[in-house]
Amino acid sequence: MKIICIGRNYAAHAKELNNEIPEEPVFFMKPDSSLLRNNEPFYIPEWTQEVHHEIELVLRINRLGKNIEERFAHRYFDEIGLGIDFTARDIQNKLKAKGLPWEKAKAFDRAAVIGGSFLPKSGFPDLKAIHFRLDINGKTVQDGNSGLMLFSFDQIIANVSKYVTLKIGDLIYTGTPAGVGPVIDGDVLEGYLADNKLLDFVVK
Ligand code: ZN
Predict the structure, then answer these.
(1) pLDDT above 90: residue 63
(2) Which of 66, 90, 173, 193 has the fewest CB atoms within 10 Å, counting from its CB?
(3) CATH number at residue 15
(4) Total number of domains in the chain
């Protein structure tokens, strides 16, 4: 399986990092070795001084598809989950400044946290109004709503599948809302999708 992550999909987040609003989805990938499951601890690698949390809604692809039309894209996922796209921001900024790929900052081990359970899409009354949030040590630091995404789930699937064949089990992290920031040793991270706590783990 592969992990596809959408960048700059919320205007307020693009702005907080001084990035332009994209005209089509920006995406990058993480390998399966970056997955962190079962609320295991996240260990800050020794080579970075600044790891940021990015809470994101995650789609799990349930059928094979290539060049998917937007009007059929909803058939390619039936569950929504919650994850964190951990980012070594100091490393990413250095790489970006040189025009180099971001992989070292995004694809490292444990950088793709995924909640234990996915919720059926049918349980959400409106896919354009899904609320999610990240709390650190009991305080809400990111408060997101899918209605603020620049590109909808269907637009993301249509666009990404122009370039990359989607396979069963692939995960798409759909971008982070504003409020990203560093995590430190001892932080307790709790992620909520609607009112369901799907993430609860510590940083070491
Ligand atoms: Zn992200």
Answers:
(1) yes
(2) 66
(3) 3.90.850.10
(4) 1
